[in-house]
Amino acid sequence: MLIHKHLHAKKKRNRPQKHRPIEKIMYFVSLAYPLTATPQLIKVYTAHNVESLDLLSWLLYVVFGSVFVIYAMSERLLPLIIEGTLWVLVYILMVVAIVLYA
Prior knowledge:
Helix content is about 80%, strand content about 0%. The chain is an all-alpha fold.
């Protein structure tokens, strides 16, 4: 128990108290980057054309992307939690489109 408290206290000391500029940028990027897939999603859902999309690939994106989100959650890396969760949502929307329009 004493060792756990010591390690936890040490971990807190190593983290900066104030947000550095790169952290602020990361919060923006964690939201903006997954939104770059919006034009592709719109194209797939309006054209109903999924011929070039492989269901297995997109299912694997969901699985492996979820592992990254779980890791980010375990390490409490909020920008990566946001980004990873949004990407997994994009992957799920693509899987749904493939299933609907195949």
